[in-house]
Amino acid sequence: MDNYEKGGASLRLHAMLPSSQANGPGLRWVLWLQGCNLACPGCFNPETHPFNAGQRVEISSLAKSILERQDQIEGLSVSGGEPFYQAHALAIFLEMIRQQSQLSVLIFTGFSLSELSSIPAAPRVLEMTDVLIAGRYIQSRRVASGLIGSDNKKIHLLTNRYSQEDILSSFEAEVHIQTDGGILLTGIDPLQW
Length: 193
What we know:
- By secondary structure, the chain is α/β, with parallel strands linked by helices.
- Strand 7 and strand 8 form a beta hairpin.
- 20% of the residues lie in helices and 30% in strands.
């Protein structure tokens, strides 16, 4: 956990997407946090790995942007990179979201639930989380089913807001054509297109 950040006023983001149906149940705002050294072979988001890439975003400004759209989305999904390397700032951010909305929170992590116990701010993050999808991506066990990239990953329903079926029946992937002509593929890398 050497890369765990103790900062608190900002998150280092790789990207965000204000509207997605492939990163959890319903229409969701998605954040990809920057930084990961788990080095899972075949990772779908390798560009999120460098810790010094991406951009710092003030959590109060980010929360305000999301809260302004809370009537248009069901929830927030956080992926990466590895979100728990920024657990302290993420906890503060999620507390802001939860105090001012009913938005659901889904987090993807490469850590197991037991590994998270060694990260000081992880319990605060988990208190604000409805669904945690946990475990390393293992390319040889790839299934691309719902929100699960490999069959070793565990779905932890931390509240009663969603069921296992809600998670497994989520769209696998979607393609966004951006205003600059770029193409964004998001979700779980599907077995077939």
